[in-house]
Amino acid sequence: MKKIKKIIAILVLFFFVANLATFIIPAQPEANDLPIIVPNEHITPEVIQHPVTNFPPKSEYALSLIDPNPTPPMSFDDLPSQFSWLDYGGDWTTPAKDQGNCGSCWAFGALGGLEAAINIAKGDPNFDRDLSEQYILSCLPVAGSCNGGWMSEAIHYIKDTGPDGNNINGCPLESCMPYTATDYIPCDDKCDDWDTYNVPPEENDVLWQVKDYGVTTINPYDPNGWDLLKTWCITYGPVVVDISASSGW
């Protein structure tokens, strides 16, 4: 059997959509009462044919956002022997989607975490707001393209209110700008009411905003790194992961 060399030690970047759950919409139950399980990717022959997402170089500013020593939200000693958000009222993640022939998994990963955080904040596992990956590809091109990108930068530019963030914090619904598996659709192709939102948010909002998020790295060979990851999963819910691996992965 061919030996597969995994080089995840080079980079394991954990993008925490965690804090979004506290701020996106009102009436959030206590975090300990409402928990979410990270979605699993099911590999099929069709998916295998999809392009592999590349990791373009991160900007110096993006690197500066990485917190090398985040404070755990709970003591490692308080970690349970097992945990699943499925035991707390249902599946808090949104349905899996097909990225098509476009290396945009980074955009799907970022919005999958954000959508789950919205469900937790709402206190309803079936709220399931479907956000637009096409908006990220077409309107936030600095974040990435069909040739790859970073999930943390997708959320960063969703939140950015400058020109690179399309001058507004937020991402509209899928129905406003449907996915085409291309990155050349003009940003102007979105719906007319794409920037409609309320403060506090309401169920009929088209645009969903980001209040806060966090990015860190862990050493996969350090048990404390995995324990830190567990505390974030239990306390906040979705954790989106970038993994750099060799071609033998």
Q: What labels would you give this structure?
A:
249 residues, two-stranded antiparallel sheet, 7 strands, Cathepsin B, Chain A, alpha+beta, disordered N terminus, 3-stranded antiparallel β-sheet, 7 helices
SSE map:
Layout: E1 12-16, H1 20-23, H2 45-48, H3 60-64, H4 105-122, H5 133-139, E2 144-145, E3 148-149, H6 151-159, E4 171-172, E5 207-208, E6 214-217, H7 223-236, E7 239-243
Antiparallel strand pairs: 1-6, 1-7, 2-3, 4-5
Helix pairs in contact: 4-6
- Structural domain count: 1
Distance between the termini: 14 Å
Q: Which assembly state applies to the chains in this document?
A: single chain
Tally of helical segments? 7
Could you state the CATH homologous superfamily?
Cysteine proteinases
CATH topology: Cathepsin B, Chain A
Overall pLDDT confidence:
78
- Please state the CA-atom Rg, rounded to the nearest Å: 18 Å
Q: What is the number of strand segments?
A: 7
Order of helices and strands: EHHHHHEEHEEEHE
Approximately how much helix is present in the residues?
10-25%
Low-confidence stretches: 1-52
| Largest sheet entry | 3 strands, antiparallel
Strand order of the largest sheet: 6-1-7
The outline comes out as: globular
Structural class: alpha+beta
Class in CATH?
Answer: Alpha Beta
Strand content: 5-15%
Please tell me the CATH architecture by its name. Alpha-Beta Complex
